[in-house]
Amino acid sequence: MLFIVADNICQEIEAGGDSGFGVAEFQRAGFMEKRPEFSNIAPFLQNTLDPGEASVIQLALDEGIRTVCIDEAMGRRVARLSGLNLTGSIGVLIRAKRNGLDFSMRNAINRMQSQGIYLSQGVIDFAFNQVNEEPV
Questions:
Q1: Is residue 46 domain-shared with residue 15, that is, in the same domain?
Q2: Residues 94 and 109: beta-carbon distance below 8 Å
Q3: Nearest to residue 88, comparing CAs of 118, 131, 110, 61?
Q4: Do 119 and 133 fall into the same domain?
Q5: How far is C-alpha 50 from the chain's CA centre?
Q6: Which of 23, 62, 77, 136 is most exposed, with minimal Cβ within 10 Å?
Q7: Cα separations in angstroms, 110 against 3, 22, 94, 105
Q8: Boundaries of domain holding 7
Q9: 3-state secondary structure of 3
Q10: CATH code of the domain covering residue 47
């Protein structure tokens, strides 16, 4: 399993915000390939989305990647309008778990929530079900 990550997304994650949330895990992940930043992002994407979402969509369109990971509503809407399939952070965790990465989905979700990331109960239940972990 390989995830292709646009360079400016890598920079956003590695900056880690105030808490450094997820930086170490991201840097250890051997299943991600960084791609250089695009200079030719379509004006529509540049004017509609933040730079990270715009580069993710442009990278997917340029390289024929069918599924993108975007959590923000506007980015998801534009990705759908661009003919792309979507997943979110939980979808990436489910895929990683299914592909043999050893971690606790419960701990991952708890860490996300402790950083102020909102996840609906439906998404949480779905995640536990998909990886055969018992819900809280």
A1: yes
A2: no
A3: 118
A4: yes
A5: 15
A6: 136
A7: 23, 13, 15, 8
A8: 1-87
A9: strand
A10: 3.40.50.1010
Q: Which of 97, 88, 105, 86 is nearest to 31 (CA)?
A: 97
Task: Extract the tokens encoding 112.
Answer: 């996300």
- pTM of this structure: 0.79
CA torsion through residues 80, 54, 119, 110, sign? positive
The two three-digit tokens of residue 76, written as one number: 């998801």
Q: Are residue 52 and residue 12 in the same domain, yes or no?
A: yes
pLDDT in tens, the chain (136 residues): 578 888 888 888 888 767 777 788 777 777 788 887 766 899 999 999 998 899 999 999 999 999 999 988 999 999 999 999 999 889 989 988 888 888 899 999 998 999 888 899 999 999 999 999 887 6
Q: 103 and 82 in one domain? A: no
